[in-house]
Amino acid sequence: MPAVPGRRGAPRDPAPAFTQALDAFERMRARDDAVLHDALASTCDTALNASDAFGDGDQKPLLNVMNSHPLRQLWSSSGDLFEKLDASPCAMSPFWVACFNGDKDAVRRAVDDARKADMNSTHAEILTSETPEGVSPLTRLLEKRESNLRYPPLHAVVAGARCLARHAPIASFVETASVLVAAGARVDSRDVAGHTALAKCTNGVDTPNACLLIALEVLGPNGADPNLANRFGETPIGAAAPSGNVGCLSVLLELGADPSLDAGAGVSALSMCHGVCAMLVSQDVRELFSLPVWKEGGCV
């Protein structure tokens, strides 16, 4: 017998429920977009960032802020990075995606093409381009900031290594980072929250070996500053210390990180591990920070 509308078991028109779910999703996305916009507008000079597409943009300090600070939340949630990567068509540049994927051959070809463009461009052509004065084709390639996190290509390699290194050859990310740095990419370029590529490599949260190798074999030997604080006043070793990741902390110490420096809020990484946070870190970390070797610029 055919089902009677209103009786238990009667088929329902799925359209209203689907429409309601879609509306709810769109409202949630609009709310999230508004939160992201507010996070950037309240913590960054967005006009400066927009005009400095190939530089660090607004890096004014944001000191003594809580973990719930909107820019922290934006950075921790990856901003709109994966939304742009997953868009169809992809909203990130092909070069940035090649860096993220650790595609060293594509990156090398693009760098070679930009070098040729540099050689063929006259000074007048560079000055009259739509980019800021004096920005060459190679610099545009190596330093262009993308997504609302303002990641340059070197950060893209580190982000890709964190996401993909368990499914791709580790060496491909290390070699891709090496190609960028050899071509002139700034090793201490910063994202919207002031994090350098070295800080991203060693923050201690689910850090794959690919990131540690990028830090040890590429960034450190090419002058990356292991004590450069982010906009929250945190040094790389200060940000990594609460994680208790001995591998990250050892790499930073080997590269010359000083755990006695203020790591934010007047607390050093050293005092975290021997004082206020001593019970939260392992014996291995406490012993590592008990060694005097960090004063000598190397961890043995």
From TrEMBL:
<dbReference type="InterPro" id="IPR050776">
    <property type="entry name" value="Ank_Repeat/CDKN_Inhibitor"/>
</dbReference>
<dbReference type="InterPro" id="IPR002110">
    <property type="entry name" value="Ankyrin_rpt"/>
</dbReference>
<feature type="repeat" description="ANK">
    <location>
        <begin position="232"/>
        <end position="264"/>
    </location>
</feature>
<keyword id="KW-0040">ANK repeat</keyword>
<keyword id="KW-0677">Repeat</keyword>
<protein>
    <recommendedName>
        <fullName>Ankyrin repeat protein</fullName>
    </recommendedName>
</protein>
<dbReference type="InterPro" id="IPR036770">
    <property type="entry name" value="Ankyrin_rpt-contain_sf"/>
</dbReference>
